């Protein structure tokens, strides 16, 4: 999430250093995205054209089909193909001044900003807003009771999940604020009231955009909460009083002690995205996703914010046996602008297949309206793409905001 302000600098292509001196206006929220074609894969054809499908699992004013569903995973558990040594928790590390060489597409320039302003295509139509917002799925329920063998998720909205793994409670990109800088207010409430949360053992952050790194929410946490963040973001967290901040580069991991003598491993993995929070910090911190693994090898992949690309197959190769992938399906229209940084629903299904995940839980939709697609379109399209891919319906965990699901 970026501020609505003049943006300096323009990274023209991966491997070059950030250029400075040319101001660029940034659009609302993270809608500025990146331009350029995605290498090696063209966009799936258009809209599905199917009639609107009511949200399964309950909508506004409807009961969810289930708040808590238990499914047993396959008995065989492949171990990681590659695994780095665990880094010490909370160590301060030195990082490059810029991570612009990690970009997989160039950042947008003045022409892209002008086109976006001219077309005004970053907001759904008034008709879509009026007809579809009341139907967005919202069905909060009780949180699962964890133990050392539980893997469970509760969707709080957008990219915020309450993950129970190995006896720990972990928040992903927690945003409990009603409104964040530069965006319209949330269109669905937070799925879990803050006072109903259990003790939070750890937080993982994917990158520093405002809809993923929310300072007011982090201020509500005890300062001894373990934070796992991308390389270059540690000082931001330490300035806010957090005492154990673990910064990781791509393919690095750390282990957090869990109850009953167990450990949960946190691995930071690449994403097709970028970072920026102020006028002067473009790509000064890294971006990515997280793979969490418990002592039994149960494994969850949280993608954060990402476009579609080659990193997914590499993640699947290095971390085989992913049980559940939390993948973004919204904030993708217009594609000419947002394709490099936000997967659309069809690309999310492809990403799930690339990482080899047994199940997929969609996210990054139905909360903050950051782009031009109708509010319910991501759900319709991901269900159609999932069916077209021949995946079992029960393996698509398209939860309402506030609902939970358990893997045992």
From TrEMBL:
Domain Metallo-beta-lactamase: from-to ranges: 170-365
Gene3D superfamilies: Ribonuclease Z/Hydroxyacylglutathione hydrolase-like (3.60.15.10)
Region span, Disordered: 1-93
One Pfam match: Lactamase_B_2
Regions of compositional bias (Basic and acidic residues) in chain numbering: 1-10, 21-31, 38-50
SUPFAM superfamilies xrefs: Metallo-hydrolase/oxidoreductase
InterPro entries the UniProt entry points to: Metallo-B-lactamas, RibonucZ/Hydroxyglut_hydro
Superkingdom classification of source: Bacteria
Protein name: MBL fold metallo-hydrolase
Lineage: Bacteria, Bacillati, Actinomycetota, Actinomycetes, Kitasatosporales
């Amino acid at each position: 999430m970026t501020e609505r302000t003049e943006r300096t600098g323009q990274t023209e292509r991966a491997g070059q250093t950030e250029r400075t001196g040319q101001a660029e206006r940034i659009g609302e929220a993270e809608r500025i995205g990146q331009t350029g074609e995605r290498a090696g894969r063209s966009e799936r054809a258009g809209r599905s054209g199917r009639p609107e499908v009511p949200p399964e699992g309950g909508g506004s004013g409807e009961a969810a089909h289930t708040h808590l569903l238990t499914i047993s995973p396959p008995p065989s558990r492949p171990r990681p193909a590659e695994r780095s040594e665990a880094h010490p928790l909370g160590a301060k590390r030195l990082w490059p001044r810029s991570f612009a060489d990690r970009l997989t597409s160039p950042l947008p320039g003045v022409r892209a900003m002008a086109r976006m302003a001219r077309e005004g295509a970053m907001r759904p139509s008034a008709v879509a807003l009026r007809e579809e917002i009341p139907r967005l799925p919202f069905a909060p329920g009780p949180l699962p009771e964890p133990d050392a063998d539980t893997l469970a998720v509760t969707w709080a909205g957008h990219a915020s999940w309450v993950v129970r793994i190995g006896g720990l409670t972990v928040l992903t990109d927690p945003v409990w604020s009603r409104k964040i800088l530069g965006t319209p207010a949330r269109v669905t409430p937070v799925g879990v009231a803050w006072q109903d949360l259990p003790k939070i053992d750890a937080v993982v952050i994917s990158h520093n955009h405002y809809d993923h790194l929310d300072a007011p929410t982090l201020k509500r946490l005890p300062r001894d909460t373990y934070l796992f963040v991308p390389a270059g973001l540690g000082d931001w967290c330490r300035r806010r009083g957090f005492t154990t901040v673990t910064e990781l580069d791509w393919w690095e991991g750390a282990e957090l002690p869990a109850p009953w003598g167990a450990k949960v491993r946190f691995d930071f993995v690449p994403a097709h995205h970028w970072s920026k929070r102020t006028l002067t910090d473009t790509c000064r911190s890294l971006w990515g996703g997280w793979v969490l693994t418990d002592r039994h090898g149960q494994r969850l992949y949280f993608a954060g914010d990402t476009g579609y690309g080659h990193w997914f197959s590499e993640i699947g190769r290095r971390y085989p046996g992913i049980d559940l992938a939390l993948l973004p399906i919204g904030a993708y229209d217009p594609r000419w602008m947002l394709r490099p940084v936000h997967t659309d629903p069809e690309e999310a299904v492809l990403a799930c297949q690339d990482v080899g995940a047994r199940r997929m839980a969609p996210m990054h939709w139905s909360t903050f309206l950051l782009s031009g697609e109708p509010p319910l379109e991501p759900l319709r399209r991901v269900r159609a793409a999932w069916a077209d891919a021949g995946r079992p319906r029960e393996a698509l965990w398209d939860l309402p905001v506030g609902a939970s699901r358990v893997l045992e």
